[in-house]
Design a protein that fits this description.
Helix 15 links the parallel strand 7 and strand 8. The strands form four sheets. A six-stranded parallel sheet has the order 6-5-4-7-8-9. It is of the alpha/beta class. The chain is built from 27 helices and 16 strands.
């Protein structure tokens, strides 16, 4: 068993791991240790269960079987397995978007709906983009038409998804040339499942193209719809301050945790937890009030719009219960451990599942219905409040660790932040890059994974990039990791960033790491990159920009879909562990090389966060050289590599 300090760098997590060692059911780290050694064939991506002639295993070293029963080789098997991961990941995020579209339609059609349109300006902007008349019409009429168009994107059978038109023209031309512009979200997912059935598509590159098509249907379709329509319903985020880590839980209040991914439930839980009736009930139960906190991407959703504090990220979900101070953990879908139910049997915590798509062992199921949203939210919160007297004080152990943060950045308010409210513009951002004050921009996103020391890769990579004047944007559990370390505070610029970033952060009053929301809000990052291209001066395509992406501790199928739509959008992307294709040499060569010729982006794999950061910086420096931009304005600890340095010198001669 590893020491707690080898499992995480977060002090609250270390404290809880030490406190709970040997107590109750095993946690995620214990279960990971019990799985060792893990199946090598599976890790390399060369096992196949797509029919029952197998399962087949291909020997990646060529000493055993080189073909499955049907004749598929390692590259075919790995490609099929990989794009099935994309299908699942794209389905998860896009189903989220479908539910939000359904709720907007319901809000437009019913006077009694608990959901209201909170951002009419965003609604009208979407209407104009989608060709919906909005002048002289009621908001509900506009919302109805916008919702119907977005809803139709999921089942559309031909044409192109409407939001792919947002991509820079050069990127769109690449997609059209490759034949990967998505037609409809559901169609692309279904086609993956068809192509990967035994005896259908057996060309690895052709399989990957369909994977890309489905991934783009997520990033420029389902996820983008989810983000934009959530803004319409719940309002577009603005800057907000809050706190993060297990220390946000309180000994003298009812503590309720929301965990999962969909904002439809959590928005109503926020309102119910602030309801006068619920607060009075909490006092009757002996509590001083109700503390609401979040885990995972639900945490990011309610942080961005309401400033609700975050209890922790993915690997802290069990630890929150083990504080003994959580009255209810309310879950919906995605990234929720099935182990939580059994764990709650050791504590007084009620695990309440709410989605018909996701039920859990030992959980109490209260099915959420958007047509009775507030009624059900109050019912759920009441269960937590009434559970407060059952808390066993002898089991309560709440770490004191919390950190302040600033969040709430979007593609829209980044322009306002830099250009001012009356003249919003991306020109200051582009100018900062062109002058060398910002070396470039990197997006760090994604999960936690017990394969890695919890949070360490996110934090170390971010610090190394900041020190080298690379501005960082974050989402999801990566954002929570950085927030716990203090990187989402303006003061972090002085402590960790290079002189160029410091100057801009001091002038504008922003942190050097910009929190753009939940994992589905990676679509905001796509729009930021698109806006940089449109602003001009940094090339004609996202692939021309001095930017990169990374998921240092990725673990889910959603991350695979995200990775592919980011790469297909032209972004160099470094993953902390390889995609499960290492046993397929030709496929590996394609996704780390040949795919760049088609889409402008490619993958790299590096577990060491500092080395990964240097790969990103090398890429950014090459893009700067291609654009004939000068080297960084100020001295930086990681100077350009020799090959990049020579490119820059050649560029200087031509200027």
């Amino acid at each position: 068993m590893k020491k707690p300090t080898k499992r995480s760098v977060d002090p609250a997590t270390i404290e809880m791991l030490a406190h709970t060692e040997g107590q109750g059911p095993p946690n995620a780290w214990d279960r990971y240790d019990a799985m060792q050694p893990q199946c090598g064939f599976g890790q390399l991506g060369v096992c196949c269960r797509n029919c029952v002639m197998g399962p087949c295993r291909i020997d990646p070293f060529g000493e055993g079987a080189t073909l499955g029963v049907c004749g598929a080789d390692a590259d075919i098997i790995a490609a099929r397995n990989l794009i099935r991961m994309i299908a699942a990941g794209a389905s998860a995020h896009s189903d989220h978007g479908r539910d939000v579209a359904h709720t907007l339609l319901m809000a437009a059609e019913s006077d009694d709906c608990d959901y209201k349109i909170k951002d009419p300006d965003k609604l009208k902007a979407l209407a104009a983009e989608l060709g919906v008349k909005f002048e002289g019409r009621e908001l509900r009429e506009i919302a109805h038409d916008v919702a119907e168009i977005c809803f139709a994107q999921f089942g559309q059978q031909h044409g192109e998804l409407v939001f792919t038109a947002r991509a820079p023209e050069d990127q769109l031309k690449r997609w059209r040339a490759a034949g990967v512009v998505p037609r409809g979200v559901d169609r692309e997912v279904v086609e993956i499942m068809h192509r990967t059935h035994v005896g259908v598509d057996n060309d690895p590159e052709n399989l990957i193209k369909q994977g890309v098509r489905s991934a783009l249907a997520d990033g420029w379709g389902g996820s983008m719809i989810a983000t934009d329509l959530s803004d319409v319903l719940f309002r577009t985020p603005e800057w907000v301050t809050s706190n993060v880590n297990l220390g946000i839980l309180k000994k003298d209040t009812v503590n309720i945790i929301v965990h999962g991914h969909e904002p439809l439930l959590s928005e109503m839980i926020v309102a119910a937890a602030q309801d006068k009736e619920m607060l009075e009930l909490a006092k009757k139960q002996g509590a001083k009030g109700i503390t609401l906190g979040g885990i995972c991407c639900t945490a990011n959703e309610i942080l961005m719009r309401h400033g609700v504090p975050i209890a922790g990220n993915f690997l802290q979900q069990e630890l929150a219960i083990q504080t003994g101070a959580v009255e209810a953990m309310i879950v919906d879908v995605q990234c929720v451990f099935p182990a939580l139910g059994k764990l709650t049997q050791e504590y007084h915590t009620k695990l309440i599942s709410t989605s018909p798509k996701a039920k859990f062992p030992f959980a109490e199921h209260v099915e959420f219905d958007e047509s009775k949203a507030m009624e059900i939210a109050k019912q759920i919160v009441r269960k937590g409040v009434e559970n407060f007297p059952n808390r066993d004080k002898s089991k309560v152990h709440i770490p004191k660790d919390t950190s302040p943060l600033v969040a709430g950045f979007t593609a829209e308010n980044i322009a306002t932040m830099l250009g001012g409210r009356y003249r919003p513009s991306y020109r200051p951002l582009n100018d900062a890059i062109m002058s060398g004050r910002f070396r470039g921009v990197a997006a760090i996103v994604g999960c936690n994974n017990p394969r890695f020391t919890h949070d360490k890769s996110h934090i170390e990579m971010t610090k190394e990039l900041l020190a080298n004047d690379v501005l960082v944007a974050v989402t999801g559990c990566s954002a929570i990791a950085d927030a716990k370390y203090g990187l989402l505070c303006p003061e972090a610029a002085v402590k960790y960033a290079g002189q160029g970033i410091q100057e801009v952060c001091r002038a504008v009053g922003i942190p050097p790491v910009l929190h753009l929301g939940s994992c589905v809000d990676n679509s905001r990052i796509l729009m930021v990159l698109r806006n940089m291209v449109v602003e001009g001066g940094l090339g004609d395509s996202i692939a021309d920009l001095p930017v990169a992406g990374s998921a240092p501790e990725w673990m889910s199928e959603k991350a695979v879909a995200i990775g592919f739509y980011v790469v297909a959008s032209g972004v160099y992307t470094v993953l902390g562990q390889p995609l499960p294709i290492e046993g397929a040499a030709k496929l590996m060569e394609y996704v780390t090389g040949g795919i760049e010729d088609v889409f402008g982006g490619k993958f790299a794999f590096e577990a060491d966060p500092i080395k990964a950061a240097h790969l990103i910086i090398d890429h950014i420096d090459r893009k700067r050289a291609d654009l004939h931009l000068p080297p960084p304005m100020y001295d930086v600890p990681y100077a350009p590599r020799a090959a990049v340095e020579s490119e820059i010198k050649e560029m200087s001669k031509t200027q």
